[in-house]
Amino acid sequence: MIVSGAWDALVREPQGTNGRDTPKWITSECGNLRNMHLAQVNIGRILAPMDSPVMAGFKANLDPINALAEAAPGFVWRLQSDSGNATDIVYSEDPFELVNMSVWESIESLRGYVYKSHHLEFFKRRAEWFEKATQPTYALWWIQAGHIPTVAEANNRLDHYRKHGATQYSFWFSQPFPKPLEELLYT
Predict the structure, then answer these.
(1) Model confidence over 123-134: pLDDT tens digits?
(2) pTM for this entry
(3) Contact in structure between 96 and 121 (CB atoms under 8 Å)
(4) Domain locations along the chain
């Protein structure tokens, strides 16, 4: 039996059901709730085309920063094309909007990479290459281990965060939600 309140929080999310009043993501996407990973998306609108001098510093650091992510504790996967990065993957109709997606074992492992590694120095320089955002540009959400999130899924999660704020469906570091297993207490 699920503790009162947890069920209500789950069924409010735009997941649909399996026809038995069980949220779809519990039965089909999650499978074994013990094996959850954290997905993240972040987007940004670059100031100039990738091949311009303005973007040279960003472009020069892509491979080292991506290698740092791949070597970080808790790293699972990152979005990339045949080029080895995601700068040529289409996120929206705006050709200057770049997308970055990755999967991590936990919030702590992603936070460690973002804020406690050399990535932070690179992150602090974002104004050199990206327009100042006027709305949220990243979202986090739990996925079943082994699931590879799509760009469309990421777009949906970020859009949901923009419209509804932090929920179990999509959230931020400052407003985290526990892994679904940690929220669902069975008696």
Answers:
(1) 999 999 999 999
(2) 0.78
(3) no
(4) 6-183
